[in-house]
Amino acid sequence: MIKKRYFEMVNLIMNSNNEITVRDIADLYSITERSVRYDVNELNIFFNRKGKKNLLEISNNKLRLLCNRKEIDEIIKRIDITEYLLNEEERVMILAYEIFLLKDRFILQYFTEKYGLSKTTIRNSLKELNQIIGEYSLVIELDNNKGYKITGDEINIRKYMINILRQYLKTEKDETLRYTPFTEIIRQFLSEKEVGYAKTVIKRILTETGKTISDEAFETLQLFLIISRVRSRMGFRIEEDIENRIFLSKTTEFSKIAKILDEIKNIEEQDIYYFVDFFLGSYSYNTDYSYFLNWILMESLIEQLIRSLSDKLGIDFTKDMILRKELTNHLKPAIYRMKNKLKLTESILKEVKESYADLYYKTWSSLEKISDFINIPFDEDEAAFITVMIQRAVIRNTNVPILRKIPNILIVCGLGYSSSRFLYENISNRFQVNIIDIIPFNQLENYNYLKKADIVISTLAFNLEGIDVINVNPIMNENDIVKLRKYGLEERKNKIKLSELVSSIRGIFDEEKLKERLIADFGEYIYDDTVKSENWEKGFINMISRKGIILNADVSNMDEFIIFIGQAMIDAGLVKEGYVDELKNQVNQYGKYIMIGEKTILPHGQLLKNVKKTGFSLITLRNGVDFLGSEVRIAICLASRNKEEHLQAILELNRYMKIPDFEDELLSKINSEEIIEYLKSLKI
Questions:
Q1: Is 520 helix (H, G, I), strand (E, B) or coil?
Q2: Measured between alpha carbons, how far is 421 from 389 in angstroms, rounded to an integer?
Q3: pTM of model > 0.90
């Protein structure tokens, strides 16, 4: 019987240039060296039965492959499911695959005969599967006369299929040898032709829309397209309507994507809407905005997270713009993933808990505010990635690295922006490197600057003609460090030359001038903890303009309402005339995503030139107006001179919106004083 570990071991040897020791394998799997030798013997016996020579040999306590990739692939394709020793997790996943491929109900006998398992074993696995799919609001129901059947919304079925199929697609993409027993089952509908076609479609969409997405997002969209076609062919349709349908239809991306997908067989209208929704939420390489979460609220939550971590760790991160950018780039798609129950394809949770246990739990506790905001528990794997960001920020704000002239390095990463930054920080802090670019794997074949790179460093295993590719882990271990040393990368010495420092400050006795000079000369390596925000503590009540509170106004439509809001902000002395056009543009760009409650919108401009001072206005309507299918009666409008002054107020507003009947209470007030007194009475 074949175990999963056997082929993982083969994969490790192949990616280590035949330099892996028996001890390395034993330590990795927490088994004895004797067990490793037993595994080698079993694998060789298996290959002998398939008509091949031995696969492995042990020489000088090192494992060495005796077959090439083509020979190994040939054997892998001939492995029957009954030859594989299934663990509980694999058994449950196989049942899931099979069940989702069956159009009708199924009976236990089908599985017992196909896999040689007892009915008791199958029942236990089905019970486990029921618990897993319960997270997707799915359930396995039993009809004693007809058998078992999975019930639930079709879109949730497809989301679950994406999560389990991503594991397979990953192994296909990076050409590793991690054989799983799902292979032949999946190939019943996930043919190479189907995968290739979907890949071509996604690339065409990226070209037409001009977007860059992570490999993780690329895989998700590719699978969504494949699964949509398969399920449609089986007669299954998405019946449930998508939230924010009207807004999605008005985006520029929708028209371009719809035109492409309309050419594909077995793609329904609802499939297109959900595809666009997935697409708009996949921008982990795009930092300018988010389609699925109000950017003002996101900034406020990130600020709160940073301040919480600063307090817990005793290190001021509030001026660390690298950390702020990394959190923004990770949290936007992370929230989207969590809301849609899409799991990260790679987990670093175990390594993080082992290496940074205390930091992980402090980070986890600080993420509670974001969990409260999105009303779902924060995913542990997502928290692990954020922990590594914080760890790098700790190093950044306690050490002073020096940049020296070094070889040109290109980083290629398959996990998205965050893991790319992990590598960037790990490598640049440890070695004297010049990192020329960071790109996702799906952009590699179109990349025009490979000739500028001396070395490619990647979390994925692949080969490039004429250039060395070094495969490392997102969180580099000692083996990775040794590997990079072998390629001649020189480790950096984290010191500034005393002569350079003395030369920089010579003759400067004024403290402010000294600070200016040091920032000018060593700004890349200096964290300025002397600047404090005076406005952080200002709450919502302190920042709402009395002149900007207008109640029970009369407007006939949303366009009129936006103009009315803008004029109220002008009359309150908060903004200039140009702010009205900004509000109009934002509504067109973000649509329903500016809504922060059932009846409330939070419009806000982004150009500082139109802002006189930071503050809020609050307008209520006598009668609601239609806004993309929702009735809006309240607008809380923000003008801000910078990214800090409004943050505490926004956090307070977010807490207000969670109070039951908050919107109804605002609508019941007849003047500004009643509004202010009501806000003062709230306990948040």
A1: helix
A2: 8
A3: no
Distance CA 310, CA 559 (A): 43
Angstrom CA distances, 196 to 137, 163, 214, 278, 417, stand at 31, 19, 18, 20, 24
HSE-up of residue 405 (Cα within 13 Å, Cβ side): 0
Q: What CATH number was assigned to the domain covering residues 408-486?
A: 3.40.50
Place of tokens 């020979």: 71
Secondary-structure class of domain 88-152 per CATH: mainly alpha
% of residues, the chain, pLDDT over 70:
83
Give the per-residue pLDDT at 523: 52
* Contact assessment for residue 442 and residue 215, using Cβ atoms and an 8 Å cutoff: yes
Cβ count within 10 A of residue 151 = 10
Note whether 363 and 388 are within 8 A (CB). no
What pLDDT, on a 0 to 100 scale, did the predictor assign at position 565?
94
Find the angle CA(268)-CA(272)-CA(275) to the nearest 5 degrees.
130
CB 9 within 8 A of CB 39: yes
Domain positions in the chain are 4-79, 88-152, 158-280, 295-396, 408-486, 540-681
| Helices 380-396 + 417-430 axis angle, to 10 | 30
Whole-Å CA distances, 489 to 400, 423, 469:
20, 15, 14
Residue 282 CB partners (closer than 8 Å, separation 6+): 213, 214, 217, 220, 221, 333, 336
Residues 6+ apart with CB under 8 A from 504: 517, 518, 521, 522
pLDDT in tens, 288-331: 344 444 566 777 788 888 988 998 988 888 888 788 878 877 78
Distance CA 332, CA 282 (A): 9
295-396: CATH class: mainly alpha
Per-residue pLDDT tens digits for 183-202? 666 666 567 777 788 889 99
Assigned fold of 158-280: PTS-regulatory domain, PRD (1.10.1790)
Residue 215's pLDDT is 75
pLDDT in tens, 144-171: 777 788 888 999 888 888 887 776 655 4
In this structure, the chain runs to a length of 684
Cβ atoms of residues 64 and 56 within 8 Å: yes
